């Protein structure tokens, strides 16, 4: 079974890294420079430079599986406890697009979906699956998987490149490469979640087929 996959807020493709090339994947990234880097790593994917939040609303019915990783700084416990506490950043209103997408997908999307974000400094307004250092909201059970603990924000770029599996040394961009790597979802965890979703989607389609016979 080939799934039509929508990868929102794609970045350079940390979550996409280990998904393979047998599925039909559309990636949405608003920054043209970052989209260009994604395309270099995943030339078979369809990459669209657009607002992911808007694209989701207009195209959600076209896909079997949707992964969304909305911007996380305004929710992050790390930002609050470190940068804000030291006076390096001003406090932000939490970007509520995160919860808009969770609610929207839960009530309108018929396929499998997952929304990923960092752990928040407040109690989540909608209960997530709490795995490692991240939250995952989805309409399927994500099986347990041990995650490597890290101190990404303190890591050197060489360490991040090895950890995330992306070599940016020959890529020219004005975007902070360390930030690009830090923003990557752990590829092994994303692969695990993708496999869980694929299995659930197969079972769903199999059940539909049985009922129609």
Overall 3D geometry?
A: globular
Q: Which regions are unreliable across 5 or more consecutive residues at pLDDT < 50?
A: none
CATH architecture: 3-Layer(aba) Sandwich
Number of strands: 7
What's the arrangement of strands in the largest beta sheet?
3-2-1-4-5-7-6
Q: Mean pLDDT, rounded to whole units?
A: 90
First-to-last CA distance: 19 Å
The percent of residues in helical segments reads 25-40%
How does the helix and strand content classify structurally? alpha/beta
The profile of the biggest β sheet is:
7 strands, mixed
SSE string, helices as H and strands as E: EEHEHEHHEEEHHH
CATH fold title: Rossmann fold
Number of helices: 7
CATH class: Alpha Beta
| Relative strand content | 15-25%
Rg calculated over all Cα atoms: 17 Å
The overall number of domains is 1
Describe this protein's structure.
The chain has 213 residues and is an alpha/beta fold. The chain has one domain: Rossmann fold. Helix content is 37%, strand content 16%. The protein is built from seven helices and seven strands; from the N terminus they run E-E-H-E-H-E-H-H-E-E-E-H-H-H. The protein has a seven-stranded mixed β-sheet with strand order 3-2-1-4-5-7-6, with helices on both faces.
Reconstruct the topology from this structure.
Layout (H helix, E strand, L loop, with lengths): L3 E5 L15 E6 L2 H10 L4 E4 L2 H8 L5 E4 L8 H8 L12 H12 L3 E7 L10 E3 L2 E5 L18 H8 L12 H6 L4 H26 L1
Q: In a nutshell, what does this entry contain?
A:
The protein has 213 residues and is α/β, with parallel strands linked by helices.
């Amino acid at each position: 079974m080939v799934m039509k996959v929508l990868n929102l807020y794609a970045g350079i493709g940390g979550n996409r890294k280990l998904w393979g090339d047998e599925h039909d994947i559309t990636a949405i990234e608003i920054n043209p420079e970052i989209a260009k880097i994604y395309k270099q790593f995943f030339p078979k994917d369809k990459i669209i430079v657009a607002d992911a939040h808007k694209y989701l609303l207009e195209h959600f019915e076209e896909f079997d599986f949707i992964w969304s990783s909305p911007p996380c700084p305004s929710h992050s416990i790390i930002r609050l406890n470190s940068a804000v506490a030291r006076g390096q950043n001003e406090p932000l209103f939490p970007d509520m697009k995160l919860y808009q997408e969770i609610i929207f997908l839960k009530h309108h999307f018929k396929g499998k979906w997952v929304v990923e974000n960092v752990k928040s400094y407040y109690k989540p307004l909608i209960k997530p699956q709490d795995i490692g250092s991240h939250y995952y909201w989805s309409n399927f059970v994500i099986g347990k998987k041990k995650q490597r603990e890290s101190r990404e924000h303190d890591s050197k770029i060489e360490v991040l490149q090895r950890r995330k599996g992306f070599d940016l040394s020959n890529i020219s961009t004005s975007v902070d490469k360390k930030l690009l790597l830090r923003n990557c979802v752990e590829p092994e965890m994303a692969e695990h979640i993708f496999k869980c979703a694929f299995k659930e989607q197969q079972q769903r389609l199999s059940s539909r087929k049985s009922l129609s016979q």
